[in-house]
Amino acid sequence: MNPELFLQLDRVIHEKGRLAIMSALAGTPELSFTELRDTLDMTDGNLTTHIRILQEEGFISVAKSYQNHRSLTTCSLTKAGRKAFTSYIDLLEKIVRQNKA
């Protein structure tokens, strides 16, 4: 087993909550804050913190608007976020394949 591969895992994405957010957003163009919170069973504060970290890294974009006189926050993967997530998944697959051999 090559331990170097594990050291290459993106620590921003690798954290459980952020990995869940990235995974959820990878399958859809955008999700609202409420949809993410409910789907991932996270608290508002926890989700907000993870979203902020992913946004600062340039992995997700956050848009704020109004719908039916209520604020609506939506999140989506950026091009860089999609590329980083794909690279992360590819590296995980490489690690799994290495350990099968």
CATH topology grouping: Arc Repressor Mutant, subunit A
Main beta-sheet strand count, sense and barrel state: 3 strands, antiparallel
Helix content: 55-70%
Which CATH architecture is right?
A: Orthogonal Bundle
| Structure classification | alpha+beta
Summary?
With 101 residues, this protein is an alpha+beta fold. The protein contains 6 helices and 3 strands, in the order H-H-H-E-H-H-E-E-H.
Provide the fold topology:
Blueprint: H1 3-7, H2 11-14, H3 16-26, E1 31-32, H4 33-40, H5 44-56, E2 60-67, E3 70-77, H6 79-100
Give a description of the structure.
- The chain starts with a helix and ends with a helix.
- The protein has a single domain (about 5-100), classed as Orthogonal Bundle (Arc Repressor Mutant, subunit A), CATH 1.10.10.10.
- With about 100 residues, the chain is of the alpha+beta class.
- It has helices spanning about 5, 10-15, 15-25, 35-40, 45-55, 80-100, and strands at about 30, 60-65, 70-75.
- A hairpin with a 2-residue loop joins strand 2 (about 60-65) and strand 3.
- Strands 1-3-2 form a 3-stranded antiparallel beta sheet.
- The mean pLDDT is about 95.
- The protein is about 60% helix and about 20% strand.
